[in-house]
Amino acid sequence: MKVEIYDPPMCCSSGLCGPNIDPLLVRVNEAILNLKKQGVEVQRFNLAQQPKAFMDNPDVKDLLAREGKEILPITMVNGEVFKTSGYPSYEELCRALGIEPKKSIPIFRV
Amino acid sequence: MSDVKTKFIASSINRSTTSPAYLFFSGKGGVGKTTMACATAIGHALQGRRTLIVSTDPASNLSDVFEQDIGHRVVQVRGVDKLFAMEIDPDEATREYKERIIAPFREVMPEDVIASIDEQLSGPCTTEMAAFDRFIDFMETDDYDIIVFDTAPTGHTIRLLELPVDWSRHIEEASKGTGQTCLGPVETIQGSKERYDRATTLLKDPEKTRFIFVMRPDELSLYEALRASKELESIGISKGEIIINGILPEEVCEVEFFRKKYTAQQKVIKKAEDIFIDIPKRYMLLRDSEVKGIDALKSMAEELFDGERPAYNTVALSSSSQAINVKRPDIDSLWLPRRETRAIFFTGKGGVGKTTISCTTALYTAQKGQKTLLVTTDPAAHIGEVLIREIGTEPVKVRENLFAVMVDQEEAFKEYKERILKEARGRYSEDMLRAMEEELNSPCTEEMAAFDRFIQFIVSREYDVIVFDTAPTGHTLRLLSLPFDYARQVEMMVSGADAARPEEDRENPFREIINILKDPERTTFSVVLYPESTPIEESYRAMVDLKEAGIETQLVVANMLIPEEVCVNNFFRNRRTMQLRYLQEIEERFGLPVLSFPLMEDEIRGMEMLEMAVRYLRNT
């Protein structure tokens, strides 16, 4: 089971490089932490920091070349494009992977 | 002064010893660091060694000293066979570095993707990385026998030198962690780690590398040299050498005013000798005119290498008037608040007296009934030295209406991190907090934190006037350009994130501060310099840089003008004539009001002396 997230350019992946905490990016991070605990391999790539990874994945490269950066973030599940232009929720990812979501996600909803 | 020569200890500058391959000159701007570095380079070249002098100073002035265009590539210095020079332009280095990363994408990716990679690489991290990268390039070539680095002013120098240490640590941590780092992806820099480690090893090898501190014989300069040597020691670089520059020749100091300065200088020299017992020292006399051009530098090299005494004129070079030749500016309209808090920034090379001018200005506005805060952002803070009291990271009351505070980058970083984590605690899981903490341990956050502190004072509206004693020029410019960079970064993050974010999150917290900095009624940028060629050149560039960032400089403070009444001999008359010539040049070149400030009989320390300085401002 594998999830790859191709992020738009950001200073860091947790949303902390700005002056305030970005709740959306924190939510994404929390989902990733949970999936990892459930044995899912999760990789994240940032366009600003790992542009090479975007070039190395043919699907991502084509989407990006065709649609521009508005297509980001791109989420891939088991090698297939799953969602573009926005992050999937934890539950969506679990459904796609065919695993049971953990009951309570220890996160404060903003 | 003749005994001074006998005190020479064989050093790397001397022809009698084998010199290490890399010589780093450090010291606050204005101490003659560039001149000493250039003279040393010329000296080695004349002795047949293939020599390169590289400037890593953002406000470099090798071109001024050699009187020849140098720029961002290695050029042969005219008139000296084996001498080559280059000025590393940080902007150009950044552009080259960025292009190396972006080039493979140009053909495949659309414009907006390229633009956003480019934009992202415009942060302060990239600039540091790029400059340091060039710097290592030179340490890895075999093309020269000796490479002289005319490094940036001390605070900056130290940060630069600390980078390889921090970076390799950062890279190690990052490769264990999320794989994200401000310095680029681990996989792209993993290959560079070896280079950084090699550079660090070279920097710490006393056989290969020598650090030379240039200082003036005054207390602040000595303190600075001591601080710098301690900081280097703490990162594993052993002590180097010291050049004490600008020593008054005893025989020209016949009047009390200069006699006092001579005695004070000798006291500092004695102190320096006691402190730096085992470190080779050189003593250079003040000259009656500036050191510019190859011939002057050759004569300087002779003094450096052989202890040859410089000749100075005993006849007046000019018989022109010695009266001040510029109009007095209306300082109240520039320094006092209109409706809202007035922020006053003093920018300029270290050593030009920014700190004393800032302290004097702050006391001046405080005495005019304005609640004033004096802020130092200089990593090597001197305000405490001038006020003779400890200045902490919280404002302390110094006297009626006058408060002072220091923005310590490391402190600010800790506070900032703590604030973010506190906000997050209880809201997020332990795992999440650990991930956050890791992300926060980045050099980017450090920069952000210092600036964050800085803004808070301005927007708090607790003070009528805030005086900023900013760090030396290059650093200042970087700091001041931060709000613009960060504003761009924040905007980008917002557009990259989910459209469903609440509206208030989209507010760019830096917008307000940018507007304040650009508003001449709320912010006054003043350049401090002393009336000599190099400081004028540097300040002019600084002014143009600020203008490009949308900020208009409003005042030039020309400090350390030798008072007419003490110029009883031609040595000082020649120096004052030179200063007056430059005063006029400043007025014409900058097109700004010029406030001239006299050289004081004693170094300004303590309230009583500050009050004397304020009285001078009042009377003008």
List keywords for this structure.
heterodimer; A: 110 residues; four-stranded mixed β-sheet; 4 helices; 4 strands; 35% helix; globular; B: 620 residues; alpha/beta; eight-stranded mixed β-sheet; 49% helix; disordered N terminus
How would you sum up the major sheet of chain A? Answer: 4 strands, mixed
End-to-end separation of chain B:
38 Å
Q: What is the helical fraction of chain B, as a range of percent?
A: 40-55%
Q: Determine the strand fraction of chain A and express it as a percent band.
A: 15-25%
How many β-strand runs of chain B? Answer: 16
Number of H/I helices of chain B: 22
Q: What number is the mean pLDDT of chain A?
A: 81
Low-confidence stretches of chain A: 106-110
Tell me roughly what share of residues is in helical segments of chain A.
25-40%
Number of strands of chain A: 4
SS-based structural class of chain B? alpha/beta
In this structure, how is the largest beta sheet of chain B organized?
8 strands, mixed
Separation, N- and C-terminal Cα atoms of chain A = 29 Å
- The arrangement of helices and strands of chain A along the chain is EHEHHEEH
The average pLDDT value of chain B, as a whole number, equals 76
